[in-house]
Design a protein that fits this description.
231 residues; mainly alpha; Peroxidase, domain 1; globular
C-alpha cells in the first residue's frame, strides 16, 4: 500500500492586509533627524541620551523657547513655507512636537527602536487595543483625541497615548506623525487628519485575525504624499 505524500498546494489562510501610511518629503526629513538620535540612543551614546533628555523636558512648549534643543528641532528653510512671521510655522511646531514626543516614547527603551517606518498613529493605537484589558480605555483616549479642538489639546492627548505605546513597546512613524501635525494646523486640516487617523485605525486586522502581524517590520508603501509646507 502506497501512502500519498502530502500535497504542496494545500490552501493556506491568507495573511491579513495591513494599511501602511506613506510618508512625504517633510516627513522623511523629520524621520532622518530622529533616526540619528535613535541610533545614537540605542548605542548608548552620550550625545543622544542628553539630547532626548532635553527634548523630553520641553514637551508641550513652543518651538524655540529652549535654545539647547535648536540643533535637533531646527527646520530646513525649504520646509518653512513663505509666510514667515513671529509665530512658529506649521512645520516648526510639528517638528518640535514630533521630536519631543519621540523622546518620551523611546525613554528607557535601549533594545528596540520606537520610531519605525510606515506605522501611522491609527495603526499603533489599533495594536494597543489588541490587549482586552486596556482596549476600552484606549478607545476612549483615541476618541478624546479625535474631538480635541486646539493644537495644545491634541498634543496633550497624544502624549497620553504615546506613554501607553511606550509601555506596550509599540512603535510609531514620527515622520508621518509630523506631517499629520503640520496639516492639522491648517484651516481645513483637522477634519482631514481625523479622517486619516480613523481610517488607519479601522483598516487594521481585528485582534483575532493578526496572524503573523509584526508591528516592528511594517511594509510601507513607497508612494510619497504631498509636501506639507504651508499654503
Amino acid at each position: 500500500m502506497t501512502v500519498a505524500a502530502p500535497a504542496d498546494n494545500v490552501a493556506k489562510s491568507p495573511e491579513p492586509k495591513r494599511y501602511a501610511r506613506p510618508r512625504g518629503p517633510f516627513g522623511g526629513y523629520v524621520a532622518t533627524r530622529i533616526v540619528v538620535l535613535q541610533d545614537g540612543y540605542l548605542r548608548e551614546e552620550s550625545f543622544a541620551i542628553a539630547a532626548l533628555a532635553r527634548l523630553r523636558a520641553v514637551v508641550g512648549r513652543e518651538p524655540g523657547e529652549d535654545f539647547t534643543i535648536l540643533e535637533q528641532t531646527r527646520v530646513a528653510e525649504k520646509y518653512l513655507g513663505d509666510r514667515l512671521g513671529d509665530d512658529p510655522t506649521h512645520t516648526e511646531r510639528a517638528m518640535h512636537t514630533a521630536l519631543t514626543l519621540y523622546a518620551v516614547h523611546q525613554q528607557s527603551i535601549r533594545d528596540m527602536p520606537m520610531h519605525q517606518d510606515g506605522i501611522g498613529l491609527g495603526r499603533a493605537v489599533s495594536l494597543l487595543c489588541s490587549d482586552p484589558d486596556s482596549a476600552v480605555a484606549v478607545r476612549r483616549r483615541f476618541a478624546a483625541l479625535g474631538t480635541a479642538t486646539s493644537y495644545a489639546a491634541v498634543t496633550t492627548h497624544l502624549r497620553s497615548l504615546i506613554r501607553l505605546l511606550r509601555d506596550h513597546r509599540i512603535a510609531l512613524d514620527y515622520g508621518v506623525l509630523a506631517e499629520d501635525l503640520a496639516t492639522l494646523q491648517k484651516p481645513w486640516g483637522p477634519a482631514q487628519v481625523r479622517g486619516l487617523w480613523g481610517r488607519d485605525f479601522y483598516r487594521q486586522p481585528e485582534p483575532g485575525d493578526r496572524r503573523g502581524d509584526d508591528s516592528t517590520d511594517p511594509k510601507a508603501d513607497s508612494a510619497p504624499a504631498g509636501a506639507t509646507s504651508e499654503e
